[in-house]
Amino acid sequence: MNRNFFEVLYAGTEDPWELETSDYEARKYALTLAALPRHRYRSGFEPGCSVGVLTARLAERCEHLEAWEPIERPRLRCRERVSAAGLTERVTVTGEELDPDAAFPAADLIVLSEVLYYLPEKKLGPTLQRLFAAAQPGADIVAVHWRSRDEGMEMTGDEAHAELRDPRHGLQLLGGWREEEYVIDVFRLPERT
Ligand SMILES: C[S@@+](CC[C@H](N)C(=O)[O-])C[C@H]1O[C@@H](n2cnc3c(N)ncnc32)[C@H](O)[C@@H]1O
C-alpha cells in the first residue's frame, strides 16, 4: 500500500472521509449491512477498517470479526469504538495489510469496503486469490466501492469490481446495488464439492 499517502492524510485529520458524521456514509453503511445475505456469521473479516464505524455494526452480526487497519491513528480509534460498544471480546483489530502474502483468516463473511482500489493493480488479482483460498467454502463476500478514482487510488471502483467478477475467481454473483457514485456487489464462494 502507499503507506505515506495514508499517514499524511490521517496526520491532518482523524477521520478524512467523515465516516463518523456524513449522511452519505451512513446511508451507504445501511445498504451494505442490508446486503449481507445471512443474518449471522461465525467469522467476519474487514480489511481496511479505518476508524471502525462499519466494524462496530458488522460485529453485531458476527460471533467474531477480524478487522485490519495498517495506519495507527485510525486503528486506535477503531479499538476505542469497539471497546465503547462493549464488543472487545468479539472483535480483533490488528495492523495487517491486504497483500498477496498476508495471513488471511478462514472467514465466512468478507466485507471489502472502499479498500480494493488502493492496492497496486498487479497485486489485486493475486491478493483476492489468496483471500478466497483461505476463506470458508460458501463464504459471503460483500464489496462496496466509490465508482470513480481519486487521489491515492490505483484504479476506479468499477475496475476493482470488474476484477471481483472475473470468472477465474469463481464467485457466484448473488446481487447488488448500483448508484451514480458507488457500487455494492454481493458474491458467494462455491461450497466445497
Ligand atoms: C476509505 S477508508 C475505508 C474505511 C472503511 N473500510 C469504510 O468503508 O468505512 C480506506 C482505509 O483502507 C486502508 N488501507 C489502504 N490500503 C490498505 C491495504 N492494502 N490493506 C489494508 N488496509 C488498507 C487505509 O488506511 C484506510 O483507512
From TrEMBL:
InterPro entries, per database record: SAM-dependent_MTases_sf, SAM-MeTfrase_NodS-like
Transmembrane feature ranges: none
Listed SUPFAM superfamilies: S-adenosyl-L-methionine-dependent methyltransferases
Keywords of the record: Methyltransferase, Transferase
Signal peptide segment: none
Record-level GO BP terms: methylation; oligosaccharide biosynthetic process
Taxonomic superkingdom: Bacteria
GO molecular function terms listed in the Swiss-Prot or TrEMBL record: S-adenosylmethionine-dependent methyltransferase activity
Name by which UniProt lists this protein: Methyltransferase
Organism listed in the record: Corynebacterium halotolerans YIM 70093 = DSM 44683
